[in-house]
From TrEMBL, chain A:
SUPFAM superfamilies: NagB/RpiA/CoA transferase-like
EC number, as in UniProt: 2.8.3.12
This protein's name: Glutaconate CoA-transferase
Cited InterPro entries: CoA_trans_fam_I, NagB/RpiA_transferase-like
PANTHER family, alphabetized: ACETATE COA-TRANSFERASE YDIF (PTHR43293), CHOLESTEROL RING-CLEAVING HYDROLASE IPDB SUBUNIT (PTHR43293:SF3)
Molecular function per GO: glutaconate CoA-transferase activity
Top EC category: transferase
UniProt KW Transferase keyword: yes
Alphabetical keyword list: Transferase
Keyword Zinc-finger attributed: no
UniProtKB/TrEMBL annotation, chain B:
Organism of derivation: Ancylobacter novellus (strain ATCC 8093 / DSM 506 / JCM 20403 / CCM 1077 / IAM 12100 / NBRC 12443 / NCIMB 10456) (Starkeya novella)
Presence of the UniProt keyword Transferase in the record: yes
UniProt keyword Transferase present: yes
PANTHER family, per database record: ACETATE COA-TRANSFERASE YDIF, CHOLESTEROL RING-CLEAVING HYDROLASE IPDB SUBUNIT
Family annotation (SUPFAM superfamilies): NagB/RpiA/CoA transferase-like (SSF100950)
UniProt keyword annotations, A-Z: Transferase
Segment forming the signal sequence: none
Name the record gives this protein: Coenzyme A transferase
A Pfam family assignment: CoA_trans
Amino acid sequence: MTTGVEPYVQLREKLSKRDRSLREKVMSLEEATKFVRDGDTVGIGGSTMSRTPMALIWQLIRDRRKELSCSRCIISTDGDLLFGSGVSNHIETSWFAQGILWGLSKVMRHNVESGGARYDEWSHMAMGMRYRAGGMGVPFLPIRSMLGSDVERIRPEAKEIDCPFTGERLLLVPALNPEVALIHVQRCDAYGNAQIDGLQFMDIDLALAANRVILTTERIVSNDQIRRAPDQTKIPFFCVDAVVEVPYGSAPHECFGVYEPMLAHMDAYVRQVNKDPVGAMQDYLEKYFYEPASWNKYLELIGMEEVLEASRRGRSIYND
Amino acid sequence: MTDTRNYTASEILAVLSSRQLTDGQVVFAGVGIPLLAATLAQRLDCPGLTILFEGGVVGAFVEPGKLPPSTNDQRCTKRANMVLGSADVLLLLQRGYVDVGFMGGAQIDQFGNLNSSFIGDPAHPKTRLPGTGGGNDISSLTNMIVAMKHEKRRFVEQVDFITSPGFIRGGRSRAESGLPMGGMFRVITELAVFGFDDTDRRIKVLALNPGVSREEVQDNTGFDLTFDDQLGTTEPPTEKELATLRVLDPERLFIG
Protein backbone atom coordinates (compact mmCIF):
# COMPACT_ATOMS: atom_id res chain seq x y z
CA MET A 1 0.00 0.00 0.00
CA THR A 2 1.52 3.29 -1.06
CA THR A 3 0.78 6.26 1.12
CA GLY A 4 1.10 8.79 -1.70
CA VAL A 5 3.30 10.96 0.51
CA GLU A 6 5.65 13.01 -1.65
CA PRO A 7 9.31 13.38 -0.73
CA TYR A 8 9.98 16.86 0.69
CA VAL A 9 12.33 17.94 -2.07
CA GLN A 10 9.74 17.09 -4.72
CA LEU A 11 7.00 18.87 -2.79
CA ARG A 12 9.10 22.02 -2.46
CA GLU A 13 10.16 21.87 -6.09
CA LYS A 14 6.54 21.86 -7.27
CA LEU A 15 5.84 24.90 -5.13
CA SER A 16 8.97 26.73 -6.27
CA LYS A 17 7.79 26.38 -9.87
CA ARG A 18 4.43 27.95 -9.17
CA ASP A 19 3.96 31.58 -10.16
CA ARG A 20 3.39 33.16 -6.77
CA SER A 21 3.47 36.76 -7.98
CA LEU A 22 0.70 39.25 -7.20
CA ARG A 23 -1.21 39.05 -10.47
CA GLU A 24 -4.78 38.81 -11.68
CA LYS A 25 -6.02 35.26 -12.11
CA VAL A 26 -9.65 35.79 -13.10
CA MET A 27 -10.86 33.35 -15.74
CA SER A 28 -13.85 31.26 -16.84
CA LEU A 29 -14.88 27.89 -15.41
CA GLU A 30 -13.69 26.18 -18.62
CA GLU A 31 -10.27 27.78 -18.35
CA ALA A 32 -9.97 27.07 -14.64
CA THR A 33 -10.63 23.34 -14.89
CA LYS A 34 -7.69 23.04 -17.31
CA PHE A 35 -5.61 23.03 -14.11
CA VAL A 36 -7.02 19.55 -13.46
CA ARG A 37 -5.56 16.63 -15.40
CA ASP A 38 -6.93 13.12 -15.79
CA GLY A 39 -5.68 10.94 -12.95
CA ASP A 40 -5.02 13.86 -10.59
CA THR A 41 -5.57 13.76 -6.86
CA VAL A 42 -8.20 16.42 -6.14
CA GLY A 43 -9.07 17.89 -2.73
CA ILE A 44 -12.59 19.26 -2.45
CA GLY A 45 -13.35 22.10 -0.05
CA GLY A 46 -16.40 22.66 2.11
CA SER A 47 -18.23 19.86 3.89
CA THR A 48 -21.37 17.76 3.45
CA MET A 49 -23.68 20.22 1.68
CA SER A 50 -21.92 23.42 2.70
CA ARG A 51 -19.71 25.58 0.43
CA THR A 52 -19.32 22.69 -2.01
CA PRO A 53 -17.38 23.84 -5.11
CA MET A 54 -20.28 22.53 -7.20
CA ALA A 55 -19.67 24.73 -10.26
CA LEU A 56 -16.13 23.33 -10.60
CA ILE A 57 -17.42 19.78 -10.19
CA TRP A 58 -20.10 20.59 -12.78
CA GLN A 59 -17.44 21.75 -15.22
CA LEU A 60 -15.15 18.75 -14.56
CA ILE A 61 -18.07 16.42 -15.29
CA ARG A 62 -18.79 18.33 -18.52
CA ASP A 63 -15.09 18.09 -19.39
CA ARG A 64 -15.45 14.31 -18.91
CA ARG A 65 -12.32 14.12 -16.81
CA LYS A 66 -11.23 10.61 -15.89
CA GLU A 67 -9.84 8.76 -12.89
CA LEU A 68 -9.69 11.65 -10.48
CA SER A 69 -8.81 10.50 -6.99
CA CYS A 70 -10.79 12.81 -4.73
CA SER A 71 -10.73 13.65 -1.03
CA ARG A 72 -13.06 15.74 1.09
CA CYS A 73 -13.69 16.20 4.79
CA ILE A 74 -17.27 14.91 4.44
CA ILE A 75 -18.86 14.19 1.08
CA SER A 76 -22.49 14.07 0.03
CA THR A 77 -24.25 14.39 -3.33
CA ASP A 78 -21.11 15.82 -4.94
CA GLY A 79 -19.57 12.39 -4.31
CA ASP A 80 -22.58 10.75 -5.99
CA LEU A 81 -22.10 12.93 -9.05
CA LEU A 82 -18.35 12.25 -9.27
CA PHE A 83 -18.91 8.48 -9.06
CA GLY A 84 -22.04 8.47 -11.21
CA SER A 85 -20.43 10.44 -14.02
CA GLY A 86 -17.31 8.27 -13.98
CA VAL A 87 -15.09 11.30 -13.33
CA SER A 88 -13.82 9.74 -10.09
CA ASN A 89 -13.37 6.11 -9.06
CA HIS A 90 -11.78 6.78 -5.67
CA ILE A 91 -12.88 8.99 -2.78
CA GLU A 92 -11.15 9.43 0.57
CA THR A 93 -13.34 10.89 3.30
CA SER A 94 -14.86 10.15 6.71
CA TRP A 95 -18.55 10.12 5.75
CA PHE A 96 -20.32 9.60 2.45
CA ALA A 97 -24.10 9.77 2.23
CA GLN A 98 -26.65 11.98 0.54
CA GLY A 99 -26.92 14.18 3.63
CA ILE A 100 -28.35 13.72 7.09
CA LEU A 101 -31.87 14.50 5.88
CA TRP A 102 -31.77 11.89 3.11
CA GLY A 103 -29.67 9.10 4.58
CA LEU A 104 -27.70 6.47 2.70
CA SER A 105 -26.52 7.15 -0.83
CA LYS A 106 -27.74 4.46 -3.20
CA VAL A 107 -25.37 5.85 -5.82
CA MET A 108 -22.36 5.45 -3.53
CA ARG A 109 -23.56 2.01 -2.50
CA HIS A 110 -24.08 0.84 -6.06
CA ASN A 111 -20.64 2.01 -7.15
CA VAL A 112 -18.76 0.68 -4.12
CA GLU A 113 -20.64 -2.59 -3.62
CA SER A 114 -20.32 -3.53 -7.30
CA GLY A 115 -16.56 -3.08 -6.93
CA GLY A 116 -16.24 -0.32 -9.51
CA ALA A 117 -15.26 2.46 -7.13
CA ARG A 118 -13.39 2.84 -3.86
CA TYR A 119 -14.45 4.78 -0.79
CA ASP A 120 -11.49 4.82 1.61
CA GLU A 121 -12.69 5.71 5.08
CA TRP A 122 -10.61 7.70 7.57
CA SER A 123 -11.74 9.32 10.81
CA HIS A 124 -12.82 12.94 10.45
CA MET A 125 -9.88 14.21 12.50
CA ALA A 126 -7.49 11.99 10.54
CA MET A 127 -8.61 13.70 7.31
CA GLY A 128 -8.04 17.08 8.95
CA MET A 129 -4.60 16.14 10.21
CA ARG A 130 -3.65 14.69 6.83
CA TYR A 131 -4.42 18.03 5.13
CA ARG A 132 -2.69 19.84 8.00
CA ALA A 133 0.46 17.73 7.62
CA GLY A 134 0.32 18.47 3.90
CA GLY A 135 0.00 22.19 4.63
CA MET A 136 2.82 22.06 7.20
CA GLY A 137 5.25 20.37 4.84
CA VAL A 138 5.71 17.30 7.04
CA PRO A 139 5.05 13.71 5.92
CA PHE A 140 2.68 12.78 8.76
CA LEU A 141 1.11 13.88 12.02
CA PRO A 142 0.42 11.78 15.12
CA ILE A 143 -3.16 11.37 16.34
CA ARG A 144 -4.81 9.55 19.24
CA SER A 145 -7.95 8.33 17.52
CA MET A 146 -8.65 5.51 15.03
CA LEU A 147 -6.52 3.26 17.30
CA GLY A 148 -8.05 -0.14 18.08
CA SER A 149 -10.89 0.31 15.60
CA ASP A 150 -11.54 -1.39 12.29
CA VAL A 151 -11.20 2.03 10.64
CA GLU A 152 -7.50 1.68 11.51
CA ARG A 153 -7.38 -1.99 10.47
CA ILE A 154 -8.49 -1.24 6.90
CA ARG A 155 -6.06 1.70 6.52
CA PRO A 156 -2.57 0.20 6.39
CA GLU A 157 -1.40 3.61 5.11
CA ALA A 158 -1.59 4.77 8.74
CA LYS A 159 1.22 3.53 11.02
CA GLU A 160 1.21 2.89 14.75
CA ILE A 161 4.29 3.93 16.71
CA ASP A 162 5.33 4.12 20.33
CA CYS A 163 6.00 7.75 21.19
CA PRO A 164 9.77 8.32 21.54
CA PHE A 165 9.14 10.63 24.52
CA THR A 166 6.40 8.93 26.54
CA GLY A 167 6.20 5.43 25.11
CA GLU A 168 2.47 5.91 24.43
CA ARG A 169 0.81 4.40 21.38
CA LEU A 170 0.16 6.91 18.59
CA LEU A 171 -1.15 6.67 15.06
CA LEU A 172 0.73 8.46 12.29
CA VAL A 173 -1.50 9.61 9.46
CA PRO A 174 0.15 10.38 6.11
CA ALA A 175 0.16 13.89 4.68
CA LEU A 176 -2.30 14.63 1.92
CA ASN A 177 -1.00 17.03 -0.73
CA PRO A 178 -3.59 16.96 -3.51
CA GLU A 179 -2.43 18.01 -6.96
CA VAL A 180 -5.41 20.35 -7.12
CA ALA A 181 -7.77 21.84 -4.56
CA LEU A 182 -11.24 23.05 -5.52
CA ILE A 183 -12.58 25.64 -3.08
CA HIS A 184 -15.65 27.89 -3.10
CA VAL A 185 -15.69 31.06 -0.97
CA GLN A 186 -17.97 34.01 -0.33
CA ARG A 187 -15.54 36.58 -1.72
CA CYS A 188 -12.00 37.08 -2.94
CA ASP A 189 -10.06 39.62 -4.96
CA ALA A 190 -8.70 39.11 -8.47
CA TYR A 191 -5.41 37.85 -7.01
CA GLY A 192 -7.11 35.15 -4.95
CA ASN A 193 -7.03 36.60 -1.43
CA ALA A 194 -10.01 34.67 -0.16
CA GLN A 195 -12.36 35.48 2.69
CA ILE A 196 -14.52 32.75 4.15
CA ASP A 197 -17.54 33.47 6.34
CA GLY A 198 -18.86 30.95 8.84
CA LEU A 199 -17.66 27.39 8.99
CA GLN A 200 -14.25 27.09 7.35
CA PHE A 201 -14.11 23.29 7.62
CA MET A 202 -10.67 22.05 6.44
CA ASP A 203 -10.29 24.54 3.59
CA ILE A 204 -7.34 26.52 4.90
CA ASP A 205 -5.14 23.45 5.41
CA LEU A 206 -6.37 22.07 2.08
CA ALA A 207 -5.38 25.25 0.23
CA LEU A 208 -1.91 25.26 1.80
CA ALA A 209 -1.44 21.55 1.14
CA ALA A 210 -2.44 21.47 -2.54
CA ASN A 211 -0.03 21.96 -5.42
CA ARG A 212 -2.61 24.01 -7.34
CA VAL A 213 -5.72 25.80 -6.06
CA ILE A 214 -8.78 26.73 -8.11
CA LEU A 215 -11.07 29.16 -6.37
CA THR A 216 -14.66 29.95 -7.21
CA THR A 217 -16.25 32.87 -5.43
CA GLU A 218 -19.74 34.29 -4.96
CA ARG A 219 -18.27 37.66 -5.85
CA ILE A 220 -14.95 39.24 -6.70
CA VAL A 221 -14.18 42.28 -4.58
CA SER A 222 -11.41 44.85 -4.90
CA ASN A 223 -8.07 44.36 -3.20
CA ASP A 224 -8.93 47.54 -1.22
CA GLN A 225 -11.92 45.75 0.27
CA ILE A 226 -9.76 42.79 1.27
CA ARG A 227 -7.28 45.16 2.91
CA ARG A 228 -10.08 46.73 4.98
CA ALA A 229 -10.54 43.42 6.83
CA PRO A 230 -7.34 41.44 6.38
CA ASP A 231 -8.16 39.34 9.45
CA GLN A 232 -11.04 37.84 7.44
CA THR A 233 -8.69 36.62 4.69
CA LYS A 234 -8.33 32.88 5.21
CA ILE A 235 -6.43 31.85 2.06
CA PRO A 236 -3.52 33.97 0.77
CA PHE A 237 -3.30 34.86 -2.92
CA PHE A 238 0.01 33.06 -3.50
CA CYS A 239 -1.73 29.72 -2.84
CA VAL A 240 -4.21 30.40 -5.62
CA ASP A 241 -3.86 29.68 -9.35
CA ALA A 242 -7.29 30.53 -10.71
CA VAL A 243 -10.21 32.73 -9.65
CA VAL A 244 -13.69 32.31 -11.10
CA GLU A 245 -16.65 34.45 -10.11
CA VAL A 246 -19.65 32.10 -9.93
CA PRO A 247 -22.74 33.37 -8.13
CA TYR A 248 -24.56 30.43 -6.50
CA GLY A 249 -21.44 28.38 -7.14
CA SER A 250 -22.45 25.78 -4.50
CA ALA A 251 -26.00 25.24 -5.78
CA PRO A 252 -27.97 23.18 -4.84
CA HIS A 253 -25.84 23.06 -1.67
CA GLU A 254 -25.50 26.05 0.66
CA CYS A 255 -23.10 28.96 0.95
CA PHE A 256 -23.00 30.52 4.42
CA GLY A 257 -24.76 33.87 4.68
CA VAL A 258 -25.84 33.83 1.03
CA TYR A 259 -28.14 30.83 0.58
CA GLU A 260 -29.21 27.67 2.38
CA PRO A 261 -29.54 24.33 0.54
CA MET A 262 -32.09 24.16 -2.27
CA LEU A 263 -34.10 21.53 -0.48
CA ALA A 264 -36.83 20.92 -3.06
CA HIS A 265 -34.22 20.24 -5.74
CA MET A 266 -32.24 18.01 -3.37
CA ASP A 267 -35.40 16.06 -2.46
CA ALA A 268 -36.24 15.54 -6.11
CA TYR A 269 -32.64 14.55 -6.90
CA VAL A 270 -32.54 11.95 -4.11
CA ARG A 271 -35.93 10.50 -5.10
CA GLN A 272 -34.77 10.21 -8.71
CA VAL A 273 -31.35 8.59 -8.19
CA ASN A 274 -32.45 6.33 -5.32
CA LYS A 275 -34.87 4.59 -7.68
CA ASP A 276 -32.17 3.83 -10.19
CA PRO A 277 -28.60 4.82 -9.26
CA VAL A 278 -27.35 4.20 -12.81
CA GLY A 279 -30.02 5.10 -15.35
CA ALA A 280 -31.71 7.86 -13.38
CA MET A 281 -28.30 9.27 -12.46
CA GLN A 282 -27.43 9.44 -16.17
CA ASP A 283 -30.73 11.21 -16.85
CA TYR A 284 -29.97 13.70 -14.08
CA LEU A 285 -26.45 14.34 -15.38
CA GLU A 286 -27.80 14.74 -18.91
CA LYS A 287 -30.42 17.26 -17.90
CA TYR A 288 -28.46 19.32 -15.36
CA PHE A 289 -24.82 18.81 -16.28
CA TYR A 290 -24.24 18.02 -19.96
CA GLU A 291 -27.09 19.89 -21.65
CA PRO A 292 -27.22 23.41 -20.14
CA ALA A 293 -25.07 25.85 -22.09
CA SER A 294 -23.83 27.66 -18.99
CA TRP A 295 -23.86 27.61 -15.18
CA ASN A 296 -26.60 30.24 -15.30
CA LYS A 297 -28.70 27.90 -17.46
CA TYR A 298 -28.11 25.18 -14.85
CA LEU A 299 -29.44 27.55 -12.16
CA GLU A 300 -32.40 28.28 -14.41
CA LEU A 301 -33.16 24.54 -14.51
CA ILE A 302 -33.01 24.33 -10.70
CA GLY A 303 -35.54 27.16 -10.87
CA MET A 304 -35.55 30.83 -9.99
CA GLU A 305 -38.15 30.35 -7.26
CA GLU A 306 -36.03 27.68 -5.57
CA VAL A 307 -32.83 29.72 -5.85
CA LEU A 308 -34.46 32.85 -4.43
CA GLU A 309 -36.14 30.91 -1.63
CA ALA A 310 -32.75 29.43 -0.67
CA SER A 311 -31.33 32.97 -0.69
CA ARG A 312 -34.14 34.28 1.48
CA ARG A 313 -33.49 31.57 4.06
CA GLY A 314 -29.73 31.95 3.87
CA ARG A 315 -29.78 35.71 4.35
CA SER A 316 -32.41 35.71 7.10
CA ILE A 317 -30.59 33.41 9.52
CA TYR A 318 -29.01 36.32 11.37
CA ASN A 319 -32.02 38.61 11.24
CA ASP A 320 -33.29 37.95 14.72
CA MET B 1 -51.17 -3.65 30.17
CA THR B 2 -52.69 -0.47 28.84
CA ASP B 3 -50.10 1.85 27.38
CA THR B 4 -50.68 5.18 29.06
CA ARG B 5 -47.41 6.72 27.92
CA ASN B 6 -47.86 10.26 26.67
CA TYR B 7 -44.53 10.48 24.87
CA THR B 8 -42.85 8.99 21.81
CA ALA B 9 -39.82 6.68 21.82
CA SER B 10 -37.63 9.55 20.59
CA GLU B 11 -38.96 11.83 23.32
CA ILE B 12 -38.02 9.45 26.12
CA LEU B 13 -34.60 8.99 24.50
CA ALA B 14 -34.05 12.74 24.48
CA VAL B 15 -35.33 13.29 28.03
CA LEU B 16 -33.39 10.41 29.62
CA SER B 17 -30.24 11.40 27.73
CA SER B 18 -30.52 15.00 28.87
CA ARG B 19 -30.62 13.81 32.50
CA GLN B 20 -27.20 12.21 32.07
CA LEU B 21 -25.60 15.62 31.57
CA THR B 22 -24.51 17.89 34.41
CA ASP B 23 -24.05 21.62 34.58
CA GLY B 24 -20.65 22.92 33.59
CA GLN B 25 -19.82 20.04 31.26
CA VAL B 26 -18.51 20.43 27.73
CA VAL B 27 -20.47 18.16 25.40
CA PHE B 28 -19.63 17.19 21.82
CA ALA B 29 -23.03 16.52 20.25
CA GLY B 30 -24.17 14.90 17.05
CA VAL B 31 -27.25 15.97 15.11
CA GLY B 32 -30.76 14.83 16.02
CA ILE B 33 -31.55 13.47 19.49
CA PRO B 34 -28.09 14.30 20.96
CA LEU B 35 -28.35 17.93 19.89
CA LEU B 36 -31.92 18.15 21.23
CA ALA B 37 -31.06 16.42 24.51
CA ALA B 38 -28.06 18.65 25.15
CA THR B 39 -30.16 21.73 24.42
CA LEU B 40 -32.93 20.43 26.70
CA ALA B 41 -30.44 19.96 29.54
CA GLN B 42 -29.14 23.48 28.94
CA ARG B 43 -32.69 24.86 29.20
CA LEU B 44 -33.64 22.92 32.33
CA ASP B 45 -30.85 22.27 34.82
CA CYS B 46 -27.54 22.96 33.08
CA PRO B 47 -27.35 26.61 31.98
CA GLY B 48 -23.56 26.34 32.07
CA LEU B 49 -23.42 23.41 29.63
CA THR B 50 -21.25 24.04 26.55
CA ILE B 51 -22.16 22.34 23.28
CA LEU B 52 -19.62 21.65 20.52
CA PHE B 53 -20.37 20.50 16.96
CA GLU B 54 -17.98 18.76 14.60
CA GLY B 55 -18.50 21.41 11.92
CA GLY B 56 -16.39 23.71 14.12
CA VAL B 57 -18.90 25.36 16.45
CA VAL B 58 -17.98 26.10 20.06
CA GLY B 59 -20.78 27.09 22.44
CA ALA B 60 -23.69 26.33 20.14
CA PHE B 61 -27.06 27.89 20.93
CA VAL B 62 -29.94 26.07 19.31
CA GLU B 63 -33.09 28.12 18.84
CA PRO B 64 -36.54 26.59 19.20
CA GLY B 65 -37.97 25.66 15.82
CA LYS B 66 -34.71 26.34 14.01
CA LEU B 67 -32.89 23.04 14.31
CA PRO B 68 -29.98 22.60 11.92
CA PRO B 69 -30.29 19.71 9.44
CA SER B 70 -26.68 18.68 10.16
CA THR B 71 -23.81 19.70 12.44
CA ASN B 72 -21.95 20.99 9.38
CA ASP B 73 -24.65 23.48 8.47
CA GLN B 74 -24.70 27.26 8.63
CA ARG B 75 -27.60 27.29 11.13
CA CYS B 76 -25.26 25.70 13.70
CA THR B 77 -23.18 28.85 13.94
CA LYS B 78 -25.96 31.24 14.85
CA ARG B 79 -25.30 32.84 18.23
CA ALA B 80 -22.41 30.45 18.93
CA ASN B 81 -19.42 31.69 20.89
CA MET B 82 -16.81 30.69 18.33
CA VAL B 83 -16.32 29.06 14.96
CA LEU B 84 -13.22 26.92 14.37
CA GLY B 85 -12.00 24.71 11.56
CA SER B 86 -13.22 21.10 11.71
CA ALA B 87 -9.81 19.68 12.61
CA ASP B 88 -9.37 22.25 15.38
CA VAL B 89 -12.67 21.51 17.09
CA LEU B 90 -11.78 17.80 17.02
CA LEU B 91 -8.38 18.60 18.49
CA LEU B 92 -10.21 20.07 21.51
CA LEU B 93 -11.38 16.49 22.11
CA GLN B 94 -7.85 15.17 21.86
CA ARG B 95 -6.49 17.78 24.27
CA GLY B 96 -9.17 16.80 26.77
CA TYR B 97 -11.45 19.83 26.91
CA VAL B 98 -14.57 17.74 26.33
CA ASP B 99 -16.31 15.78 29.11
CA VAL B 100 -18.93 13.92 27.14
CA GLY B 101 -19.39 12.78 23.56
CA PHE B 102 -22.99 12.30 22.61
CA MET B 103 -24.14 10.48 19.48
CA GLY B 104 -26.82 8.33 17.98
CA GLY B 105 -25.97 4.77 16.97
CA ALA B 106 -26.82 2.47 14.07
CA GLN B 107 -25.47 -0.81 15.50
CA ILE B 108 -23.92 -1.50 18.91
CA ASP B 109 -22.44 -4.59 20.54
CA GLN B 110 -21.97 -5.97 24.07
CA PHE B 111 -18.76 -3.92 24.57
CA GLY B 112 -20.30 -0.68 23.30
CA ASN B 113 -18.56 -0.68 19.93
CA LEU B 114 -20.52 1.15 17.24
CA ASN B 115 -20.76 0.32 13.55
CA SER B 116 -21.76 2.84 10.92
CA SER B 117 -19.47 1.60 8.12
CA PHE B 118 -20.17 -1.88 6.77
CA ILE B 119 -22.64 -4.73 6.93
CA GLY B 120 -20.72 -7.85 5.93
CA ASP B 121 -17.08 -8.16 4.94
CA PRO B 122 -15.43 -4.75 4.39
CA ALA B 123 -13.47 -6.16 1.45
CA HIS B 124 -16.72 -7.15 -0.31
CA PRO B 125 -19.40 -5.28 1.60
CA LYS B 126 -23.00 -6.39 1.48
CA THR B 127 -23.91 -2.85 2.47
CA ARG B 128 -21.61 0.17 2.49
CA LEU B 129 -22.86 2.55 5.18
CA PRO B 130 -21.90 6.25 5.39
CA GLY B 131 -18.91 5.78 7.71
CA THR B 132 -17.65 7.44 10.85
CA GLY B 133 -17.75 11.18 10.35
CA GLY B 134 -16.55 12.44 13.74
CA GLY B 135 -17.78 9.30 15.54
CA ASN B 136 -14.46 7.48 15.76
CA ASP B 137 -12.67 10.57 17.11
CA ILE B 138 -15.40 11.36 19.63
CA SER B 139 -15.63 7.81 20.99
CA SER B 140 -11.83 7.41 21.06
CA LEU B 141 -11.22 10.57 23.02
CA THR B 142 -14.11 11.09 25.43
CA ASN B 143 -16.79 9.48 27.58
CA MET B 144 -19.70 8.53 25.41
CA ILE B 145 -23.43 8.65 25.75
CA VAL B 146 -25.24 6.89 22.92
CA ALA B 147 -28.96 7.41 22.35
CA MET B 148 -30.50 4.87 20.00
CA LYS B 149 -33.59 2.92 19.07
CA HIS B 150 -33.74 -0.52 20.68
CA GLU B 151 -34.00 -3.26 18.07
CA LYS B 152 -32.61 -6.78 17.99
CA ARG B 153 -30.76 -6.15 14.73
CA ARG B 154 -29.10 -3.08 16.23
CA PHE B 155 -28.07 -4.70 19.55
CA VAL B 156 -25.74 -7.46 18.40
CA GLU B 157 -23.19 -9.60 20.23
CA GLN B 158 -20.37 -8.35 18.01
CA VAL B 159 -20.53 -5.61 15.39
CA ASP B 160 -19.38 -6.47 11.86
CA PHE B 161 -17.01 -3.51 11.93
CA ILE B 162 -15.81 -1.27 14.76
CA THR B 163 -16.29 2.23 13.39
CA SER B 164 -16.37 3.96 16.79
CA PRO B 165 -14.65 2.03 19.57
CA GLY B 166 -16.30 1.29 22.87
CA PHE B 167 -14.44 -1.15 25.09
CA ILE B 168 -13.35 -3.13 21.98
CA ARG B 169 -13.02 -6.74 23.26
CA GLY B 170 -13.73 -5.87 26.88
CA GLY B 171 -11.43 -5.95 29.90
CA ARG B 172 -8.40 -3.73 29.32
CA SER B 173 -8.41 -4.08 25.53
CA ARG B 174 -9.36 -0.44 24.93
CA ALA B 175 -6.41 0.94 26.89
CA GLU B 176 -4.11 -1.70 25.42
CA SER B 177 -5.12 -0.58 21.91
CA GLY B 178 -3.79 2.90 22.67
CA LEU B 179 -6.98 4.52 23.98
CA PRO B 180 -6.24 5.12 27.69
CA MET B 181 -9.03 7.68 28.16
CA GLY B 182 -12.80 7.64 27.92
CA GLY B 183 -15.04 4.87 26.71
CA MET B 184 -18.72 4.11 26.83
CA PHE B 185 -20.52 5.69 29.75
CA ARG B 186 -24.23 5.24 29.03
CA VAL B 187 -26.48 3.84 26.34
CA ILE B 188 -30.03 5.15 26.39
CA THR B 189 -32.87 3.44 24.55
CA GLU B 190 -36.63 3.69 24.72
CA LEU B 191 -36.57 0.49 26.80
CA ALA B 192 -33.73 0.96 29.29
CA VAL B 193 -30.64 2.79 30.49
CA PHE B 194 -27.38 0.86 30.19
CA GLY B 195 -23.95 1.19 31.76
CA PHE B 196 -20.80 -0.92 31.50
CA ASP B 197 -19.23 -3.24 34.05
CA ASP B 198 -16.08 -1.76 35.61
CA THR B 199 -14.08 -4.96 35.11
CA ASP B 200 -15.16 -6.95 32.10
CA ARG B 201 -16.59 -3.84 30.39
CA ARG B 202 -19.70 -5.60 29.16
CA ILE B 203 -22.94 -3.69 28.79
CA LYS B 204 -25.49 -4.09 31.58
CA VAL B 205 -28.97 -2.81 32.26
CA LEU B 206 -28.93 -0.18 34.99
CA ALA B 207 -32.59 0.81 34.88
CA LEU B 208 -35.76 -0.15 33.07
CA ASN B 209 -37.85 2.58 31.54
CA PRO B 210 -41.43 3.06 32.81
CA GLY B 211 -43.65 0.10 31.99
CA VAL B 212 -40.84 -1.98 30.46
CA SER B 213 -40.07 -5.52 31.73
CA ARG B 214 -36.72 -7.37 31.82
CA GLU B 215 -38.12 -9.78 29.24
CA GLU B 216 -39.03 -7.00 26.84
CA VAL B 217 -35.48 -5.62 26.93
CA GLN B 218 -33.98 -9.10 26.55
CA ASP B 219 -36.33 -10.01 23.69
CA ASN B 220 -35.19 -6.97 21.73
CA THR B 221 -31.48 -7.64 22.26
CA GLY B 222 -29.36 -9.99 20.14
CA PHE B 223 -27.29 -11.38 23.05
CA ASP B 224 -27.77 -12.37 26.72
CA LEU B 225 -28.07 -9.32 28.90
CA THR B 226 -26.82 -8.73 32.41
CA PHE B 227 -29.02 -6.78 34.80
CA ASP B 228 -27.44 -4.66 37.51
CA ASP B 229 -27.84 -5.91 41.10
CA GLN B 230 -29.47 -2.60 41.95
CA LEU B 231 -31.67 -2.57 38.87
CA GLY B 232 -33.77 0.58 38.98
CA THR B 233 -36.69 2.09 37.16
CA THR B 234 -36.27 5.41 35.42
CA GLU B 235 -38.57 8.26 36.35
CA PRO B 236 -40.98 8.97 33.50
CA PRO B 237 -40.49 12.25 31.62
CA THR B 238 -42.04 15.14 33.52
CA GLU B 239 -44.55 17.53 31.96
CA LYS B 240 -41.92 20.26 32.14
CA GLU B 241 -39.32 18.15 30.33
CA LEU B 242 -41.76 17.18 27.59
CA ALA B 243 -43.10 20.71 27.19
CA THR B 244 -39.61 22.20 26.91
CA LEU B 245 -38.53 19.52 24.45
CA ARG B 246 -41.60 20.02 22.25
CA VAL B 247 -40.98 23.76 22.10
CA LEU B 248 -37.49 23.05 20.73
CA ASP B 249 -38.82 20.83 17.93
CA PRO B 250 -42.31 22.14 17.08
CA GLU B 251 -42.26 20.44 13.68
CA ARG B 252 -41.34 17.15 15.39
CA LEU B 253 -38.42 16.61 13.02
CA PHE B 254 -36.48 14.55 15.53
CA ILE B 255 -38.92 13.76 18.34
CA GLY B 256 -41.32 11.85 16.07
